[in-house]
Amino acid sequence: MALELMYITNRPDVARLAQESGVDRIWIDMEYIGKEQRQKGLDTVKSYHTIADIKRLRPLITRAALQVRINPIHKNTSDEIENTICAGADYIMLPYFKTSDEVRYFIKEVNGRCKTMLLLETKEAVEHLDKILNLPGIDEVHIGLNDLHLAYGKNFMFELLADGTVENICRKLSGAGVKYGFGGIARLGHGYLPAEYVISEHYRLQSSLAILSRSFCNANNIKDLSMIKQDFENGIKEIRMREKEVSQYTEQEFEINRREVIKRVDKIVEEIKSNEKI
């Protein structure tokens, strides 16, 4: 079980390099409605991609899949879905939903014309998850830790991994037979919670999907394409090597890693709270 790796970009040159280096999905991110207000003050990705970006990348994306995040349900959702599918999306992602009615409407509008992914990132969606998972037409669910940790009043997004929230959601998704993933990963040895620990949790929880974060490769801050290529090639090679190692873990080794995640997350949260007091 190798993780399917996703990377957000609308740049043709970066998308091509990512695909050639083994990224499984190139992600066009059109979501903007309400995002600035929800994530105000946080250093999160706000892309403002468009339908034109889908059309520009579609001919280039031949080995990877093309995934598109639309806006939350709004008055023009039907047109947005139609235009996204016509432009060539392989996967279409619905963010920030709260009810089964929203999901039902989304699935109806897509009408089987491409794969559907739900971005689970509200408390309400978690509370209604059993009802939502009874709906036909859901191909995948990704647990969005950025917004979800804010919804639960947490200080750090991986608190939801450490406190069992992600595990409880994964159990429901697994029981429903829906493919799922969570969060993002940086380079091995980098990030607040280094990727090697997060990858182990993906395998323990039988997750299939992961986002490559800006900490993995922030292509917008790198002008030299050869450096971007090197980041992707080396970074993905390291991830695959770690996956090979983790795939042989015993239950005891997974438990040791889980406890280390909790320990490291607790330390990070303490540091965040201390800095807030200064």
Q: Your description of this structure?
A:
- The chain contains 13 helices and 8 strands.
- The chain has an 8-stranded parallel barrel with strand order 1-2-3-4-5-6-7-8, surrounded by 7 helices.
- Helix 1 (12-21) packs parallel to helix 12 and helix 11 (195-204) packs across helix 12 (225-246).
- It has a single domain (4-277), classed as Phosphoenolpyruvate-binding domains (TIM Barrel), CATH 3.20.20.60.
- The protein has helices at residues 12-21, 35-38, 51-57, 77-86, 100-110, 123-127, 129-133, 145-151, 159-162, 165-175, 195-204, 225-246, 251-277, and strands spanning 4-8, 25-29, 65-69, 91-94, 115-120, 140-143, 179-185, 209-212.
- Strand 1, helix 1 (12-21) and strand 2 (25-29) form a beta-alpha-beta unit.
- Helix content is 48%, strand content 14%.
- With 278 residues, the chain is α/β, with parallel strands linked by helices.
- The chain is globular and about 45 Å long.
- The longest helix is centred in the C-terminal third of the chain and has 27 residues, at 251-277.
How would you sum up the major sheet?
8 strands, parallel, barrel
Work out the radius of gyration: 18 Å
Q: What strand line-up does the widest sheet have?
A: 1-2-3-4-5-6-7-8
Q: What's the CATH topology label?
A: TIM Barrel
CATH architecture: Alpha-Beta Barrel
Q: So how many helices? A: 13
Binned, the helix content reads 40-55%
Which secondary-structure class do the elements indicate?
alpha/beta
Return the CATH class: Alpha Beta
